[in-house]
Specification:
Number of strands: 12
Number of helices: 10
Largest sheet: 4 strands, antiparallel
CATH architecture of the largest domain: Sandwich
Helix content: 40-55%
Strand content: 15-25%
CATH superfamily of the largest domain: Jelly Rolls
Structural class: alpha+beta
Radius of gyration: 19 Å
CATH topology of the largest domain: Jelly Rolls
Mean pLDDT: 88
Order of helices and strands: HHEEEEEEHEEHHHEEHHEEHH
CATH class of the largest domain: Mainly Beta
Number of domains: 2
Distance between the termini: 30 Å
Length: about 240
Amino acid sequence: MDDYLYGADTYSQSDLFAGIPRERQADIFGRGRHRLVASGGTLFRESGQALIGYFVEKGRLKLSKVHEEGKEAIIRYINPGEITAAVAVFSGKSYPVTAVAVGPTEVIGWNREAILDLMSDQPPLAINLLHVVVQRLDDIQNRYLEQRAERVEQRIGRALLRLVKHSGRKMNDRILIDFPLSRQDLADYSGSTLYTVSRVLSSWEKRGWIKSGRERIAVTDTKSLQAFAERGPSPELLEL
């Protein structure tokens, strides 16, 4: 897995701008409004009118939705080089989730008129945005199937692997999920409970698959975790 990168090269690494020359990328970003969101700050709230779509330059956004019972569900994390809320803005709908900054986060935002103008001026941008939407629909479908068909231990494993894939950074013999992640966050992301996540992570730590600390989780045996997530837990693991 490649090291996770931040900084000026975020634009060229983003799938959203594939096939668009650098000078035209500069024009796209020049039409947007830059904003810094403090750690823990809210960029937009669920059910608010979707006026601006955002691209994350640095930092990270946590997108969450609140159930009727008041429990939070983490829908996804938006990493540097990714966009959020553009479809809601384009369709004139409300924001379907709440976006909170995980660490200091820099974003660039465009309103509906600007998004439409940019897609008209830069046809590859419209195609790339469609690809992003399709990928996220696939992700939602896969996670729905996980919730319906898999044991909670598998869901936790898949959640960790998903985070490692998108936000992993190599550190010697392990891959660190490169942002603060509490056990409650992982529970909210995998559709589990704090008790279950704590039990499962403790078991995996004893087996040498992960290392965890205060709001930090690193995977030390990706192959074993991958095999577990794909086949499900063996009976002896369920007893731990």
